[in-house]
Amino acid sequence: MNPVESFNLNGRKLIKYLAILLITLLIGAIFLFILIYIDIRDELQKETEQAIEYSILYSPIEEALETYTFNGEKPYDVIKGENESGESLYVFIPKNLTHTDEIKWIEEEAGLKKDDLLNRFRTNCSNCSLIEINPGILNNHFVWEVIYEQNDRMYFQTYRFSNGELYDSISFRK
What local confidence, expressed as pLDDT, does residue 75 receive? Predict the structure, then answer.
């Protein structure tokens, strides 16, 4: 066997082993990513379930209907639920709740409903891409946070829960 043929055989083996190694590393990375994703999702699910439990224990809510996350000056898990009379309310559970934190709530009827705010948003911003609408608390005021994209900018606008007036607006270039 001449040296060129020997090199071709060894080169092919080397490429074969490198391809097997790369495929093995790729499969391992995908598996690791899936494990990390499942772990994070499970942790978030546990936090949400605990917030629902707290809202039922420490507020008038009897049944939880929806959950939200608000990340303002202080992050909250927000639970929308119904009391024993069937009235809807929002309960604000501070994330990492301590014994000094206060659990707050407000009846849905005390302010602008999410659907009404959504209709206003769609009327005033027809070429916007809505990301989410969440209830929250800023400076001890109940607010609605609207997050959307428009013209390569990301907007975070808050509106007073009581009447829907603009409270604050921040935007960033994407």
Answer: 94
pLDDT along the chain (174 residues), means of 10: 55 85 94 92 89 93 95 93 95 89 94 94 90 95 96 94 94 89
Q: Can you give the pTM of this predicted structure?
A: 0.78
The residue among 115, 116, 152, 156 whose CA lies nearest residue 136 is 156
Picking from 123, 122, 147, the residue whose alpha carbon sits closest to that of residue 135 is: 147
Residues 44, 50, 56, 62: what is their CA dihedral angle, to the nearest 10 degrees? 50
SS3 labels along 41-76:
HHHHHHHHHHHHHHHHHHCCCCEEEEEEEEECCCEE
Pair 46, 65: CB distance under 8 Å? no
Q: Which two tokens stand for residue 42?
A: 């499970």
CB-side neighbour CA atoms (13 Å) of 165? 4
Among 128, 105, 133, which Cα is nearest to 117's?
133
Pair type for strands 141-150 and 75-82: unpaired
Cα 141 to Cα 70: distance, rounded to the nearest angstrom:
13
C-alpha triplet 150, 67, 119: angle, nearest 5°: 40
Q: What is the pLDDT of residue 154?
A: 95
